[in-house]
Amino acid sequence: MIQELLAYFNPFDYLVIWLFAAFAIALFVSLNTFPAIFMISVKKQLMDEPGSRSAHSKRTPTLGGIAIFMSLVVVITTMGGFLDTKVLLLLLGGMTILFFLGLKDDLLVLSPRKKFLGQLMAALVLIIFTDTRIIGFSGIFGITTMPYWVSVIFTLFVYILIINAYNLIDGIDGLAGSLALFACVAFTYVFLITEEVSLATISVATIGSLIPFLKLNFAKKRKIFMGDTGSMIIGFLLSFFVVRFISEAQTYQTSVFYNSAPVLALSIVFFPLLDTLRIFFIRVVIHKKSPFAADQNHLHHNLLKLGYSHKQITAWVVIINMILFVLALLFKDFEIHLQFVLLLSIGTILYSAVFIYHWMLTQKSKSKIAEHTR
């Protein structure tokens, strides 16, 4: 009787209960894993030492990514049997590769080359065995369909870019975690519209795993960081969501997002990509050094220098990214190039607004000083 019930059970028939169960399981596992991680980190002195680039002054545990990974593993293994098992198992395999690479990097030090190879391997597993790849640009730059190997290489580039973008923005309290939380909410919405129950389930589970982390990441006492373990897993998940969403939308012309998927996906991960491309430009073109050389030129570093707190910066960034996502939804029936230009223009203006405001204040102050000295 139980086997018959399981054979005919369809999560879509009980969607609200199903998604709540995924959220609750991930939340429960995460809540009960963090205390153990914190205790072991303190006892074994597995802590991040503040350096010249650090935005923190105290030694802090960096293994928060373990709880996020464990939460997702439990959800996939307990609920995955009713979903797209092949995709979820391959997703879990890729996450596991990055989990151990990130863990080694958090505990010891891992060379950028080994991290890069691990990211390539994790991404290739999903691209090749599920054939989930970005087929084209929906007409942007006149490109609708790319040759198979060009599609695979470009999709690999998207994975590497997003994974490392999330790793690079993890520099102040709550920023990477809050942006990931917002991205998962956004992807849950689009996956429910496109009836991708498997990915909506993982997206909701990720939300459940992130809430306890953010509480500790923002805390003054018993603070914890997600480390490379967490940022690589989150970046990998979100890059898969981006690729899957665009791939499915481009495959079916009846899709609600057939003419807007690339722009809508870009709106969800706009800030990490903007900051990463900006920082690479500054390092390579202006300072003539390696794009991977560490510095304090990130947008969040510049905002810290202007006197904003970690919470203020995080709130400002996430709110703007939410606005861009809503605008992208409103623009989705516009011509694709117009959507693209509007998103880039509005996004750049909104993220530059605070710097323009402070520049104007500085110029006003200088003019007043000049008047008094005459």
Q: What brief labels describe this structure?
A:
single chain; 374 residues; mainly alpha; two-stranded antiparallel sheet; 14 helices; globular; magnesium
Q: What does this 3D model show about the protein?
A:
The protein has helices spanning 2-8, 15-43, 64-79, 85-107, 112-130, 148-168, 175-193, 197-218, 227-251, 261-268, 270-286, 299-305, 310-330, 336-372; strands at 47-48, 60-61. It is an all-alpha fold and 374 residues long. The chain has a two-stranded antiparallel ribbon. Helix 2 (15-43) runs antiparallel to helix 3 and helix 6 (148-168) packs across helix 11. It is globular, with a radius of gyration of 21 Å. The model has no long low-confidence stretch (mean pLDDT 87). Keywords: Cell membrane, Magnesium, Membrane, Metal-binding, Transferase, Transmembrane, Transmembrane helix. GO terms for molecular function: metal ion binding; phosphotransferase activity, for other substituted phosphate groups.
In short:
With 374 residues, the chain is an all-alpha fold. It is built from 14 helices and 2 strands.
* Number of helical regions: 14
**What's the total count of β strands?**
2
Rounded to an integer in angstroms, the radius of gyration calculated over CA atoms is 21 Å
What general outline do the C-alpha atoms trace? globular
Low-confidence stretches: none
Q: Mean of the pLDDT scores? A: 87
Q: What percentage of residues falls in helices of 4 or more residues?
A: over 70%
Distance between the termini: 93 Å
GO molecular function: metal ion binding; phosphotransferase activity, for other substituted phosphate groups
Subcellular location: Cell membrane
Pfam family, one: Glycos_transf_4
Main location: membrane
